[in-house]
Amino acid sequence: MTQAATIVRTGRKFEQVLRGAREVFMADGFEGANVDDIARAAGVSKATLYSYFPDKRLLFIEVAQTECQLMAERILSMIDESRPAREVLTITATQLVAFLTSDFAQQVFRICLAERDRFPELARAFYAAGPENGQRRICEYLEKAVSKGELLVEDIPMAAEQFSELCKTRLWTRAVFGIQNRFSQVEIDEVALQAVDMFMARYGA
């Protein structure tokens, strides 16, 4: 893909196009998503849609990146880093478990897996916006917690990945295999609390 093809313009109807695309990708997946349907759902012409996104892959990537960014911002807005580490990690874990088991995250995961060989850039872009970005932000917090003496961590990147994996316990696997599609707040809270308990047992000062 050329550099020119990767340029995404912003404008008055940019958010409108993203909302329409999100709706169609969620319903039909990537391969089944039709540009006509996306334009119709967004309430714009095909010409307008193409003026923002000349390639359907770019549109999917932008939708995924935007959703991941919103999730990260939501978690950050809920966190007061002056609070104890257990409290901060519990908020983070609860939001992360909820996101991982959400319809959106599950659909994007399936799309990236299905299109991995034909369009590896889809998976790479989602990984960068989701897991990689999440790991970076967790690392940033862990470094602060270690500097304050709240946690004892030698390998911070490893600990950050371990924390994320703990948040996948039970529910994420059930969602991936379609065993369970809806998760109560009680189930989400239980996984989050257990994840934090185990993490603090290993790294708590």
From TrEMBL:
This is TetR/AcrR family transcriptional regulator. Coiled coil: none annotated. Keywords: DNA-binding. It comes from the Bacteria. InterPro entries: Homeodomain-like_sf, HTH-type_TetR-like_transc_reg, HTH_TetR, Tet_transcr_reg_TetR-rel_C_sf, TetR_C_Proteobacteria. Residues 11-71 form the HTH tetR-type domain. Residues 34-53 bind DNA.
